[in-house]
């Protein structure tokens, strides 16, 4: 596995900090196992996707090279773009709400003014341990008019709440599930970043007579900007990949969730219901590129702008 | 990037999941602001934060309460309170025995995927992160760029081509189809790399080399113990990812005998909703509860472990 360099001969030990000769390959030895599997499950599928996207199965004559025809089709595909618009709308609303709550809780924990800090930290983090399937079924049951909490409230108070599983509200209902799942995870990232702010900054602030809010604005937020940007990028990528929640809710709300509800659902349906593997690969590539562009924009803006 | 926890000099900094690793050391740090003594506790702030806790815990309470109900009561009683006979034990028994103990099989499958998949992913990430952090080698920057780029690729975009590749190799519908993709955790690698940069002083490695210890021996005898808290964290995150995985097995596995718990429970739910299917909502709910209990227990236990005060990567002031 790893290439082991012979120990340097006595008296000729390389001076510290200068890695040379045999040791240049030792690092490769440690990284190689990861890279081999990485090539199989990341690089090969990407290359294969590109290959697939340039061909098409014809009824006559089998597999044909079609150049950028598949891409042209994708750019004119209303179902595909409606999915992208939907997840775009989703992330513009859901991501700020989720990260906002996560940040406020992290600041509250960090302020040291809470009773039972550990209980709060663990309780809010717990949903992260719940599989998306369970989270979605649980909320889906509660949303239900059949025997869910919505039905209970309707019966009990003799009101008619709007149906969370209706086509108008389904996106908000999914947003609520995703927020519930990941608010604690993001809170932990922010909290961890807050914990490592050097004490000296607070001492300086105390000498200058800064109040609590001033400390939050002038010290804490700038110090965790990196963590905020990272959490935003991950959440954006997650929104674009939305699949589990709508796919599982589909059985509870068949009328509200179409086969092209999100780009990922669309890719899945194309490939596994429609057997259009070439076109599905094309859609996946376009989606990946869109995601990377948006993530990159978030990073650029986040690093430049004052939070 | 702030310099606070930037990787040690010499390692390229990049916008990776910066400083996610202090998660390791939550709650072990001495309370700061010693200068002013303890801050005053605030009832108002506690009350406000409690609202968020209520939001996160109510669904879990709902799950537990309804796992204690019989199927008919489930449909007829108020969701957030107990009703009728306490049926939890009956429900658990029925969940395990229903359909010829298929739930037990799903549980064992899930354990297989988690132990091999998450264990393997952690092992590869530890080796790779250590190699990146502590050795200079030709092409290191290229490797780094490749991995950071990979983090940005939506995993689901790879799922369909991976499925087609695996089906050509004859791997679909076998455990390998779920395990092999789980072995790569770019995030875990990054975390280990940052952690190893901080936790293992170069001088220590140099001393071992001067004493004539081989690189592998040094890794296992000296570096690995220092990396323990980082390893636990990576293990925790890869475990959650494999335990909760849905999309990957959904695509790769058609045979219910190889389902993980997540797919199994979803298939029960689908069965309950098809016309003429047997409504087993009580099993869906009890099965869901049984699925999350092990993870929550693991979290709480490992939480203790992180707090065992291993000195690695302590705060630099």
Characterization of the model:
- The complex is a heterodimer of chains A (307) and B (317).
- By secondary structure, chain A is mostly helical.
- Chain A is 68% helix and 3% strand.
- Chain A is globular and about 80 Å long.
- Chain B has 317 residues and is mostly helical.
- Helices cover 67% and strands 0% of the residues of chain B.
- The two termini of chain B are 17 Å apart.
- The N terminus and C terminus of chain B are likely disordered.
- The chains are: A mainly alpha (307), B mainly alpha (317).
- At the A-B interface, α1, α3, α4, α5 and α6 of A face α1, α2, α3, α4 and α5 of B.
Number of contiguous helices of chain B: 12
Shape of chain B: globular
**Strand portion of chain B:** under 5%
End-to-end separation of chain A in angstroms reads 47 Å
Q: Count every beta strand of chain A, where a strand is a DSSP E run of 2 or more residues.
A: 2
By oligomeric state, this entry counts as: heterodimer
**Strand residue percentage of chain A:** under 5%
| Number of separate helices of chain A | 13
Write down the secondary-structure element order of chain A.
HEEHHHHHHHHHHHH
Dominant shape of chain A: globular
Number of strands of chain B: 0
- Helical coverage of chain B, percent range: 55-70%
Mean pLDDT of chain B, rounded to whole units?
A: 79
Summarize this, please?
The complex is a heterodimer of chains A (307) and B (317). Chain A contains 13 helices and 2 strands; from the N terminus they run αββαααααααααααα.
